[in-house]
Structure formats: C-alpha cells, structure tokens
Specification:
The complex is a heterodimer of chains A (about 210) and B (about 180). Chain A is mostly helical. Chain A is built from nine helices and two strands. Chain A has a two-stranded antiparallel sheet. In chain A, helix 1 crosses helix 2 and helix 8 packs across helix 9. The longest helix of chain A has 23 residues. Chain A is globular and about 55 Å long. With about 180 residues, chain B is α+β, with helices and mostly antiparallel strands. Chain B folds into two domains: about 45 residues; about 110 residues, Phosphorylase Kinase, domain 1. Chain B has five helices and seven strands. In chain B, a hairpin with a 4-residue loop joins strand 5 and strand 6. Classes of the chains: A mainly alpha (about 210), B alpha+beta (about 180). At the A-B interface, helix 2, helix 3, helix 6, helix 7 and helix 9 of A face helix 1 and helix 2 of B.
Chain lengths: ~210, ~180
C-alpha cells in the first residue's frame, strides 16, 4: 500500500481537531504504523491524537499528579516513536502501547517523584454552577479521596487497578500488558480491592440505607 | 462483594482528556532528542575517526617496523639497503653483486635495530645493525665468542652471528668481497 494512502481512507480518522484513527479498522492502523516507521510525521500525529487521552489518563491515574502525568505521557510517545520498529503486528498495538505507558509509569516512580495532591477535581467543582456546587464539591472530594488512596497503593496493585478502572480492560488484557498470568491479575486486584475497601470504608453507604 | 467500591473507583479513576499542550511537549522533546541523537552521532563519528586513525597509524608502524621484509625485495641487496636506510637512516654497505654463497631470507626493524637473516653456505646467519652510541669510534671486529663477532663502523654497531663458527668468515661475504 502506498505510504500516503492511509490519509485518503476517508472518515476513519479525520476529525476537526486532527487525525484520529478508528481502532475498528486494523488495516488503517497497520498502514499508519508502517508510515510512522518510515518517518511520516503525519502518521505519528495520527497515532498521538488517537491514543493521547488513553495514555494521559493512565499516567494521571497512576501518578495522581498532572505534572508527572505529562512527563509520563511525553516519555511514552517518545518511546513509541523510537521503538515503533520493534512493534510486531501479530500483537495488538493497543497492548504494545499500554506496555510502554506502564513502563513509563514505573520509570517515573523509580525516579522518586513525590506524588502531589490532585486538586483538579476541586478546581472544576468550584467552577460549577452555584446550585450544584455543594454536590459537586462533595463528589469531587470523594473522587480526590479515591485517587489519593489509589496513588498510595503498591505499584503492582496500583497498575492493575488503573488498567481495570480507567481503561476497563479485562483480566486477560491486563495480564498480557504487565506480563503475568490472569490468575496473578485476579489475585492482585483482589488484594488491592481489600486494601481500598478498608481505606475508603468511610465512603461505604450504611447497611440498608439510601442516598439522602 | 465490592458493590459500593467499584462505582467509586470507576468515577474516581475515569479517563480524562489529555491537555492540548501535550503535543507541544512531545514535539519539543522530540526535537531535543533528535538534537541529542545528532550530537551523539557526531561524537560517535569523531570517535570512529580517531579509532581509525590510531588503527591506521598502528598498521602503518607495523608495516614499516615490525613486519619482516621478505621475498624478492629482501633478496635484492640494493632494495634491502634502501629499505634499511628508509627504516633507520643507517647505510649498510651490502654488496650489490651478492656472493653466490649468500642467500638473503628476511629483514625486520625491531625498534630501530635491523635484523637481517640469511644463509651463508648451508648455515644460518644473522646480522644485527643499530646506531652506535653517540661519540663511538670505529672499532675492529671483535669476536665475542666462536659464533658471534661485533664491531663499530661509521656510527653503526654491527653484530654478526652464525650457527657454525666455521662459517662465520663466510657470513662476512654479505658485505665483503670474496
């Protein structure tokens, strides 16, 4: 397939904000990857636009720190660019990219970054309409509490929680990304759930109670 | 089992939109990375040039120094004389019309000392030639022992060794007339 032809495949990737690939069209993704390998800057931009939110979300939920998340996401895309030649099409590109993110998260943690409090939710809440401010603040406070507790989990527990709840991945997919068995993923998730249940016990609704 | 926990996790850890400035960050880092790669490439090329230069100089030194002179070039006394002069600046008075009893085998430069291996009749012989100490006067042939004779001539120290003491006289025909 000619190098430029993926750009001509119509609505599969063109949006007003840039080029976004349709993950349901594996051939298009393969073509973009091939073009990216050949140094096509537009192909890299297309991959970036398609995956930036997923990459940034995992980075943010893992680090609990927007500045760290930016560093991790940046590092991930640089790795993508430099290692795209290593990607083999028999594996899922999503899984390959998730592995890059996970490795960047771990690398960032090893650099000893101090996790800063995550305040974005509170800032958003303050900017909400007046009638819902109280509810939104409570909601934001709860979310911040969840994020803080998740950020304090051990890395091996945190990453499975983030991949599960931020990305909604299956046990098999998580296992493939972090390189362990689905049973290990289940075990780590179970352990993480127990820790979170204990540390977030104050969020647990009263038995038989209902929201007021 | 975690009925209340899972919705909290889904809400608290929901996916978000990447900030627009992420692209600029990646582009900026890419450019820096590219510059660093280019700098690394320049350094690598410079290092390669240095290594090649050192390697070539070693090869050149070996080719003009340690590597023996053999074959036709060595067997021609005129060429051997020119080679010794080029190597050390010494002028070895080899006979241009070599005696039929002398057959040159090889010559090599060992740190400024020329070693010429040859056959005198059916005996092995070796002539060592080096620059004499400054101020050394000519000294006549001095038979160190039955096999070895040494002398100084025109600023050159020469040592002649032969496998058979009886053939030492014959070995002199490398330079002298019959």
């Amino acid at each position: 397939m000619p190098l430029k032809s993926w750009k001509d495949s119509g609505s599969s990737f063109v949006q007003t904000t840039g080029m976004v690939l349709n993950a349901n069209e594996p051939q298009v993704i393969e073509d973009v990857i091939e073009a990216c390998r050949s140094g096509d800057a537009d192909a890299f931009r297309a991959l970036f636009e398609s995956y930036k939110d997923r990459v940034y979300s995992i980075a943010l939920r893992y680090s609990g720190n927007p500045a760290a998340a930016m560093d991790i996401a940046q590092d991930t895309f640089l790795k993508l660019l430099s290692r795209i030649g290593d990607y083999r099409s028999e594996a899922s590109f999503d899984s390959w990219l998730y592995r890059l993110v996970v490795n960047s998260c771990i690398d960032d943690q090893r650099r000893g970054r101090r996790m800063a409090p995550f305040l974005d939710g509170l800032i958003d809440a303050v900017c909400a309409p007046v009638e819902s401010v109280l509810h939104t603040l409570m909601r934001a406070e709860t979310e911040k509490r969840v994020q803080d507790v998740v950020a304090k989990l051990a890395p091996e527990h945190r990453i499975v929680i983030v991949l599960r709840y931020t990305e909604g991945l299956s046990y098999d997919e998580i296992a493939s990304i972090i390189g362990c068995s689905p049973g290990t993923v289940a075990s780590r998730l179970n352990r993480a759930h127990k820790i979170l249940e204990r540390r977030l016990a104050h969020l647990r609704p009263p038995e038989g109670g209902s929201d007021v | 089992m975690y009925n209340w926990l899972e919705p909290e996790l889904q809400r608290g850890l929901r996916a978000v939109t990447a900030p627009p400035e992420l692209w600029d960050r990646v582009q900026g880092a890419k450019a820096v990375s590219s510059r660093e790669n280019n700098r690394m490439l320049v350094w690598a090329m410079a290092a390669a040039v240095v290594v090649m230069a050192v390697g070539l100089s070693v090869l050149h030194r070996d080719s003009v120094a340690g590597t023996p002179l053999t074959g036709d070039r060595c067997q021609n006394p005129a060429q051997l004389r020119a080679w010794v002069r080029a190597q050390t600046g010494l002028d070895l008075p080899l006979r241009a019309d070599s005696s039929p009893s002398i057959r040159l085998i090889s010559a090599r430069n060992a740190d400024g000392r020329i070693e010429i291996v040859y056959r005198a009749g059916n005996r092995d012989a070796m002539l060592l030639v080096s620059r004499a100490d400054a101020g050394s006067r000519n000294a006549p042939h001095n038979r160190v022992n039955g096999n070895v004779s040494s002398w100084v001539m025109d600023g050159q120290r020469l040592t002649l060794a032969c496998a058979d003491p009886a053939a030492l006289q014959l070995a002199c025909k490398l330079c002298h007339l019959d």
